[in-house]
Automatic annotation (TrEMBL):
Protein name, entry field: ATP-grasp domain-containing protein
UniProt KW keywords: ATP-binding, Ligase, Nucleotide-binding
Keyword Disulfide bond included in the entry's annotation: no
Organism the protein comes from: Streptomyces glaucosporus
UniProt keyword annotation of Ligase present: yes
Length: 400
């Protein structure tokens, strides 16, 4: 839909496994929402905020189509949307069945399959990375010998840094393979180790044109789990320009046409290289960082731009402030005591995901972190300083 094109007085969308923010943003724009949640689970509280709530098996495209087709025939949907990992493929599949515009099922499938994504990029010469799909430890060891250095073993469809391991050399292939399987890793992919800083690129696409909204500097801890983000990036402008060009070429290659994307990148000595991407807003409160640093509401853009209700960003925005988040990773054990610093006089927010008596696990995935501190500041360095000073004063005492 071209921006400004007339839309129905009350446009309608279906939201699959959606976040409360997407339902609320749509409602604020005067969009009627049909919220579809997993029939196997109790309805989430946000279901009561939608115009209509439906229960359906999200993994069954036929059942989703059967649930939504009568509503679509009665008053057509403009889009089927989701901003959650588990809702992206079902949304694309049912939109295709209903004949609605949006990102194709092929595109969303590519973004959720790191193996196919890498094969496509390598075939087109877009930031090539040596890769293989090992069948067993012997294959993994052989790949280590071929690359002549460490490699990364990860699941083709993994999220949240689960089951991601570094393999230092062929001698470690057997042990890492067992650890990968024990962590629930499936459909392994091995890639050459990419050295250099890790960043993420938030972008928004409209009618096949991609605008970079922000580049986020990342801190990565053990097991490749992210421990912090800062916006805007402190990388030199030429590196940022090269990264933006790579991401735009990548999004063209996978066929993304609309909505947000979150693309993770390593800045290596050979130039930036794509790690993975998702057609959604980045997790880890990156949505809040965009709001704090740039004044952007990407959730509202996701709902409003495809319907012509909001103007899509035509060029990269300029940061008004800096924003940062730091995640809390206390020692493993049972939480015995918690002490929080005073945040008065700051824009900071402290969120804890554990309480006294809870068990803190070793950090092997994003879900193992104990909470976060988020703040903004006059610039990126100021925001990071505020965040880190407060995080250092959070005391989560564990034992055992």
């Amino acid at each position: 839909m071209t921006f400004g094109q007339q839309v129905p007085a009350t446009p309608r969308i279906a939201v699959l496994a959606g976040t409360p923010q997407l339902v609320r943003a749509a409602r604020a724009l005067g969009i009627d929402t049909v919220f579809v949640h997993d029939a196997a689970q109790p309805p989430p509280p946000v279901a009561a905020e939608a115009g209509t709530a439906l229960a359906a098996p999200l993994a069954d495209t036929g059942a989703l189509h059967a649930a939504l087709a009568p509503l679509h025939a009665e008053r057509p949907f403009a889009r089927v949307l989701s901003l959650t990992e588990r809702g992206l493929l079902p949304a694309a599949a049912v939109a295709e069945r209903l004949g609605l515009p949006g990102n194709s099922l092929h595109t969303v499938g590519l973004l959720q399959d790191k193996r196919r994504m890498r094969e496509l990029l390598n075939a087109r010469g877009i930031g090539p990375v040596a890769t293989t799909a090992p069948r067993d430890p012997a294959d993994l060891a052989a790949f280590c010998r071929t690359t002549g250095g460490p490699v990364i073993l990860k699941p083709a469809a993994g999220t949240g840094s689960r089951a991601v391991f570094e393999v230092a050399g062929p001698q470690d292939a057997e042990d890492v393979w067992r650890a990968f399987e024990a962590a629930g890793g499936l459909r392994p992919i091995a890639e050459e180790y990419l050295d250099g800083p890790e960043i993420s690129v938030e972008s928004f696409s409209y009618d096949g044109e991609h605008t970079v909204l922000a580049v986020t500097d990342k801190l990565v801890g053990t097991a490749f789990v992210e421990t912090g983000h800062t916006q805007p990036s402190a990388l030199p402008p030429p590196v940022l320009a090269e990264t933006a060009a790579l991401v735009q070429a990548f999004l063209d290659a996978v066929g993304l046409t609309e909505g947000p994307a979150h693309t993770e990148v390593k800045v290596t000595r050979k130039g930036p290289r794509i790690l993975e991407s998702h057609n959604r807003i980045g997790g880890d409160k990156i949505r809040d960082l965009l709001r704090r640093a740039y004044g952007l509401d990407v959730v509202a853009l996701t709902a409003g731009c495809p319907l012509g209700l909001l103007r899509p960003p035509a060029e990269p925005p300029v940061a008004r402030r800096g924003a940062a988040i730091r995640f809390l990773t206390p020692p493993p054990g049972t939480v015995r005591n918690i002490t929080l610093p005073d945040t008065d006089g700051t824009t900071a927010e402290i969120r804890l995901d554990v309480g006294v008596g809870d068990r803190v696990r070793p950090v092997r995935s994003s879900q193992d972190r104990a909470g976060y501190v988020i703040a903004d500041g006059t610039d990126a360095a100021d925001a990071a300083g505020v965040c880190e000073a407060l995080a250092d004063r959070v005391r989560i005492e564990t034992s055992g």
